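Hey, I was hoping to borrow your eyes for a little while. For a while now I've been wondering how a particular protein folds. The fold is given in discrete form, as structure tokens running alongside the sequence. Could you read through the record and tell me how the tokens relate to the sequence? Take your time with it, there's no hurry, and the full record follows here:
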Amino acid sequence: MSTKLTIPLFSLAALMVVGCQEGTTREDVADARAEVQEQQADVAAARADADAEVAAEQDDVDAARREANKPVLDNDAAEDVTEERQDVAEARTDANAEIQDEQADVTEAKQELQQTEAEFQQTQARDAFGQQAQQQLALADQKIEQLENRENAQDGASEQATEDQISNLKAQRERVDDALDDMNSAEIMKWQEHQKHVQLALSEL
């Protein structure tokens, strides 16, 4: 009869973090929403600045027009009115371009938010599946511990048979671990491509 050290693996599995885990958190979603709000605020600010700039240029037009309508006409007054009107047109063009740029930023931020929300949903789905897999690993660890305790009380052929059973179960458990590592380190939107490998490894556990 041999004496072996029994390690309660199942108690470690519940605390184990598998591999380098990719994923998206609630904080990522909140940051993406904040970015959309910030870009929307930039659009509002651009519109306010545009209105102020156009209004200022329009004031110059009105002033030039009043100057041109005086009884004693300045020779350059008519030209001033034309120039000020051109300034108004340019201010409107520039303002529209600035607003369009800000609106494009809003559109991009909204698209990124949608992507972030989709990734978060996939992260939750993957993590839920991973937790189920960990529960099955914990059961396997309990079985390994039971077998090791039994082996300590055995001799000869029965001891060897139990040892072989333990080795096979540990090898199968390692395959599950490797499959989980691959799944968790994959791009979050592609995790389901690795899920079937985990399921297959679990079915052999």
User: Anything to note?
Assistant: Confidence is low (pLDDT under 50) at residues 1-19. The chain has five helices and no strands.
